[in-house]
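Incident log, structure service

09:12 report received: a user says their structure output differs between two submissions of the same chain.
09:20 pulled the input from the user's history:
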Amino acid sequence: MMRCWPVVSRPARAWSSFTPEAFRDDAPCACKPRGRAFGMNPAQFDDKTSALTTWMTLLERGIRVAVSIIDPFQIKTPRPAMTTTTVEQVDPATLKKVIVAAAIGNFVEWFDFAVYGFLATTIALQFFPTGDSSAALLKTFAVFAVAFAFRPLGGIFFGMLGDRIGRKKTLAMTILLMAGATTLIGLLPTYAAIGVMAPVLLTIIRCAQGFSAGGEYAGACAYLMEHAPRTQRAWYGSFVPVSTFSAFAAAAVVAYALESFLSTEAMGNWGWRLPFLIAAPLGLVGLYLRWKLDETPAFQAVAQEHAVAHSPLKDTLRHHAVAMCCLGAFVSLTALSFYMFTTYFATYLQVAGGLSRATALLVSLIALAFAAALCPLAGAYSDRVGRRATMATACILLMVVVFPSFLMASSGSFIASIIGVMLLAVGAVLCGVVTAALLSETFPTRTRYTASAITYNMAYTLFGGTAPLMATWLISMTGSNLSPAFYLIAVAALAMAGGMALPETSKISLHDVPVAGEEPVVGAIA
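09:34 re-ran on a clean worker, output below:
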């Protein structure tokens, strides 16, 4: 029996509608007894209900309160008129608009996030002024990693929201939060002005960025994939990583320009703030574009049949835990390889290769432009050979090229450094493109946003956010500039095992997913 969702008209009424009795399976309708939203204890549930289920229910209830508070602003689960529209019937003109809007919004989101990584050296001096530059850099990267701890929380929150009210409005919220947090970093006083509160406030704002990023990438992938033709999903989905690589390239351009045209004193005083302040106008542009989007046909079909998941988190963990673990193992390599060459290598080229700050940023910029151009080709390759073959290619390639890549990057030669970073970029692109497709193909429509966001963000938290920190720590502990390469090889082996446990999904229809029940995608692991 599908349980009713108690829609309320005012935020004040939302808190009184969420009681333990209101969401029991035998509750008759939305007209439930009222009480305090969180004022209950696990003993009020059935004896057979586990403590985990109890706290999952509490978490989901909090999300529902947020949805009810948002309700007065007309952000409701869509109930479209009857239609026979399917993913395969979306016209080319609409697909172009979807690509542009989703990609530009994702670009804005990740430009804001990337700026911090490229300005790590300058930020270390402004917020962690110690006598040891390596210690200051470690603290800066530690803040980078802490922000990733909030990505799974953001993935759960925005994932459940996206499965409840739709992809469109949820993606508008993520970009608004990211732009606001990034602008605040640009306005933040330094350690010299307010002392220890400066790094504390920086950490808090970075956590807000991480929370926002948790709902971005998986949602953008789902939005594009739910519009794309069945035989070209990886190609269309590749424009999400294209926009991500382009965002990092744009951040590198801005950082390179500042390093080249500003003195060290000017850069430390005010120059580092400029890229963060750009976030405000960019965020407004992205918000406008996303607000003009239509909801995806796949989600409209679910909403039309009144089959929107009542408990997306609970249903996801109950029915798709194995698939999430297998896919998460592969996404761990996507995360590590991505942040190795987009964020960490800008620092590695300076520390191990002896390149200047401006030259290292130029190398990163060239590699990022190369990666962005390669993404559509990788998408076409994946559509042709399948997802499993693409995953195997990516894992084996990274195992083979990682040592030559690190050796050339540490050689001190400008040309060799470019080639070394490009070698790593090829594997990272293959991983990123096939991940964008698998995030949507592995899970059913009604829980797709939640399942994919949790899977993606858990992997990125454990292996992406810690990549610069782990690489810096490994080098400091072993004294070898090649030690991060061994770490990447170990993760590639884990990714190969997880990826090969997944079935081939390139030819399935996303509409093969039953929307009235909680069955997995056709051919996927339940």
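09:41 both user submissions now match this output. Likely a transient worker issue. Closing.
09:42 reviewer note: Residues 1-30 form one domain. The chain has 24 helices and no strands.
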